[in-house]
Fold this protein.
Amino acid sequence: MRNSQSTLTLSIIGFGAVGQGVATIVQNAPHIKVVAIADSKGVALMPDLNDVLARKRGGQPIANSNLTALDVIRTIDHDVVVEVTPTNIHGGEPGLTHVREALKNKRNVVTSNKGPLVAAFDELTQLAYTNGVALRYEATVGGAMPIVNLIRDTLAGARVLDIRGVLNGTCNYILTRMAEEALDYDQVLSEAQDMGIAEADPTYDVAGIDTACKVVILANAFFGRHATFADVDVTGIDRITQDALQLARQRGFAVKLVGDVQELTVSPKLIPIAHPLNVSGTLNAASILTDTAGEITVAGKGAGSIETASAILSDVLSLKRDRS
Ligand code: HSE
């Protein structure tokens, strides 16, 4: 990359909800140019963003070339690969190959895709280091809620002792509505699916798998744990009963699915009603326990197209700042 005012060039690999969110918000970002967009069917080169967004929404193909996503990553000269294909926790593909190839070709990577980081965190961070490029992943944990860069940059002067988080919006929505409105599990799960925040397979949410992936990423990033998914002890919310939630409520507690990063656990926990981790609806929250700064709790939107894209843009803009 050249100086801070020159244009930063991006490819967007994956054009689902998050990829479309990125295309929407970078339209108004100065000095950022999207050179290619890949969806599962093909590649649009030098896309007109309005046009490809309209095509995608209308169910029309976006491709205007014979290239594949890997061709773009390997052969088109650009600064940043935005890898936003869907998370696959079984081996991380196709995202893992995309991220690996981008780093090997000395392209910076910004991603919301948990799969590659859960499958190969150490390998990918090492690959970024040896190739002199950045791998940024704020959007993988907590969507728009700042946590990765908050700990890495803003809290750099403190030692982080533990992170405990409500890191899955779908589970939080289900638990909140069940507890506050005495609704049943299946009804609220299907509402969460309609809202578009649940994973394509909602078992990833309710069985605690998505939260466990986020725990793995934070454990590797901040505690050097070399952890993978298999290291996390996971209990989901799929067996929580209405009675258990009401009993907790009467005693001044809310039940939340909590990921504990030091413990490498994910399980439903009783959180005092007045505790800042007791956020409602689709919100995420994380309490960061530090040696010198005490406990810091953040909360925010953990999912959503534009919300997740905002975290990606923040990583892209930080690369732009770094190059000056
Ligand atoms: N399905 C996830 C959630 C999306 O409900 O929080 C963000 O990882």
Notes: The chain has twelve helices and twelve strands.
